[in-house]
Design brief:
alpha/beta; Zincin-like; globular; UTP_pyrophosphatase-like; YgjP-like_metallopeptidase
């Protein structure tokens, strides 16, 4: 764990070296800063890179803190509560029914039908758990549909495409062509999810993040900058931790 001083604050960061990157980068997410360096970098080169990015890092941390303070909090999973979904706040309706299973649907808002046997003290935990499962199924289907479209259009053949709980980053493309997509993107507009999928698929052709990569992505998705801009601004709001409830 390294430390860089920004203003009057010491910022701790996790250093990761990668043979797959051609340029250094910093990723800032709530409570975590990751610095990706080249395998050939020595301590002086990493320090010089961090010093050159001090202002950017200061601004990024400030924006993350502001967004985190404003992000949605769902204190109770009950009728009338609202939760983020695809870039908007969706209303939640919880109903009781006599069926044996919990049923989740979406019709201009989330509807959760709870069996009568569910105890009141377990209400929030069960609703949150079922919503999380529904959202993961939804984003898995979205990613599959988007990837199928781009693979067919651009003759791409990823080894695998999976959604995952990712501590940092929104997606990755491994050396073997295996692609991971952060399932928290289900909270972003669908066109932003599409951008991340296209971004990782583009790495099947161009591995680095140089000018050649961005030109290739622009060919695949001419308006990628607008979608990327939304993600850069709102990334701190894509926090699915509100669904983690203990019994």
């Amino acid at each position: 764990m390294g430390v860089v001083r920004v203003g009057q604050t010491d910022i701790r960061y996790e250093l990761r070296r990668s043979a797959a990157v051609s340029e250094r980068r910093i990723t800032v997410t709530p409570g975590h800063v990751e610095v990706v360096a080249l395998t050939t970098d020595d301590a002086a080169e990493i320090d010089a890179f961090l010093q050159s990015k001090r202002q950017w890092l200061f601004n990024a941390l400030r924006d993350i803190e502001a967004q985190t303070a404003m992000r949605a909090v769902v204190p109770r999973f009950m009728t009338g509560s609202k939760m983020p979904y695809r870039g908007r706040m969706a209303r939640l309706t919880v109903r009781r029914h006599d069926g044996p299973h919990v049923e989740v649907s979406y019709r201009s808002g989330f509807i959760v039908d709870l069996p009568s046997w569910v105890r009141q003290r377990d209400h929030d935990t069960i609703v949150a758990t079922e919503l999380k499962l529904w959202l993961k199924q939804r984003v898995r289907r979205d990613v599959s549909e988007i990837a199928e479209l781009y693979c067919k259009r651009f003759a791409l053949k990823p080894r695998t495409i999976r959604i995952a709980d990712m501590k940092t980053g929104w997606g990755s493309c491994g050396p073997s062509g295996s692609i991971l997509i952060n399932w928290a993107l289900v909270l972003a507009p669908k066109n932003v999810l599409e951008y991340v999928v296209a971004h990782e698929l583009a790495h099947l052709t161009v591995r680095t993040h140089g000018s050649e990569f961005w030109a290739h992505l622009a060919m695949m998705m001419p308006d990628y900058e607008r979608r990327k801009g939304w993600l850069d601004v709102h990334q701190a709001s894509l926090d699915v931790s509100f669904l983690d409830r203990s019994a």
